Amino acid sequence: ADLFDEIVMAEQRFHGEGYQEGLAEGSHAGMAEGRRCGALHGARIGSEIGCYLGFALTWHCLLPKCTDEKNSKKMKALDSLIGMIQKFPYEDPTYDKLQEDLERIRGKFKQVCSMLNIQSDFRIGTERSSLTF
């Protein structure tokens, strides 16, 4: 009777074993894909933020240190952008307002470009990332 039960229950046993093996393999593959995707997305954000910071620091040095109202507003906007970037939580991927802060930085960058009369186009692609003027 035991041999007969093993034959009858073989399909169910093999199904269960296959499911467990597939689950383990899928979990492993999913973790690897998730890490790769996260690293790629993080690198893109880092590249974008780094470009904004380099842009802001360069213009901060280039603008004359005049006290006229136009340059004063530009300097305040640049200082604000630099401050936002410096406060950005690079090391905390679980930060719940990461996307909101990133959008604020992008908006401030566009505002600064507008104030400086600069057309900006930040592109991230597989071939290159650039900031053009």
From TrEMBL:
<dbReference type="InterPro" id="IPR052436">
    <property type="entry name" value="LTO1_adapter"/>
</dbReference>
<protein>
    <submittedName>
        <fullName>ORAV1 protein</fullName>
    </submittedName>
</protein>
<dbReference type="InterPro" id="IPR019191">
    <property type="entry name" value="Essential_protein_Yae1_N"/>
</dbReference>
<feature type="domain" description="Essential protein Yae1 N-terminal">
    <location>
        <begin position="18"/>
        <end position="56"/>
    </location>
</feature>
<comment type="similarity">
    <text>Belongs to the LTO1 family.</text>
</comment>
<dbReference type="Pfam" id="PF09811">
    <property type="entry name" value="Yae1_N"/>
</dbReference>
